[in-house]
Amino acid sequence: MTRYVIPLGIFVVLVAFLAIGLGRDPRKVPSPLIDKPAPDFQLTQLHDPSRTFSAAEMRGKVWLLNVWASWCISCREEHPLFLKLARSGEVPVYGLNYKDKREEALRWLQEFRDPYILSVADTEGRVGIDYGVYAVPETFLIDREGFIRFKHIGPVTAGVINDKILPLVRELNR
Amino acid sequence: MKRFGLAVILVYAASFGVLAQEARPMADDPELEKRLMKLSQELRCLVCQNETLADSQAGLAVDLRREIREQMKAGKSDQEIIAFLTQRYGEFVLYRPPLKPATYLLWFGPFVLLLVGLAVLYKYVKQRREMISDQPLSADERRRAQELLRSKPGKEVT
Asked: Is the ipTM here above 0.85?
């Protein structure tokens, strides 16, 4: 009896592990930045390069930082969701324009419309490195104390906004 | 004809020059560049995850190499640079995961499996040996075996 049960048991365990492994996305690397202070930056604003914006200015507010670029195709996918989110006024959305050319970024915003309160230009991608960005678009939710509470890699979906981001925003605003 | 063939080969070979990229400046410091290569071979590129940071031509890998180069120039140690990267990208960037409770299974798992395999093998072999020695030949069987061994090959003994 055991000579059949043991291999069967091993087989079942192996299949279970493989099934779990298949269901996971290896591109989604858990960020070590969750629940850590959001790295500060001081970057020029995309629309007005004479002015700068720093993450420290957002102390006391819950806000979203969306990393985007005009060359990023999947950014177009999530863009309508951010337009909707901006209209709802539930949470301010700021853009980090990652490794982009200013003219192209501005043209992109004109074409697809601009959901961001403002965007900053990270032309060299250095702030991106500080935030551990490796797959644009990425979205960070930052709380009043300036801690990163949530990070989404890749385009957000309506599900992510409604089930994860918005409940967390409400909780953090309480 | 021979000459023509040679000419074709030469033109073909020369055309590879078009594909080749201009040699990138090896920075001003080949020593530092060597150190950079050595360190970045230990690090994973996050964009093409099965490539090292040294091999990858992804934009992020180029940026990270620039970052590492600058930190090396600023006198940072390899340890400090690795800490800088793991703070941002997690231990996933390390091809050689650190030894800590969460990675014990990863590091020791194969050896545990090997030991289990050896134990099973030992038990199996021992069991078989007992099975064999449990049934010694009877006197009658022994005599028959002796006869069989003594008989000339090719002839049946009945």
From this structure: no
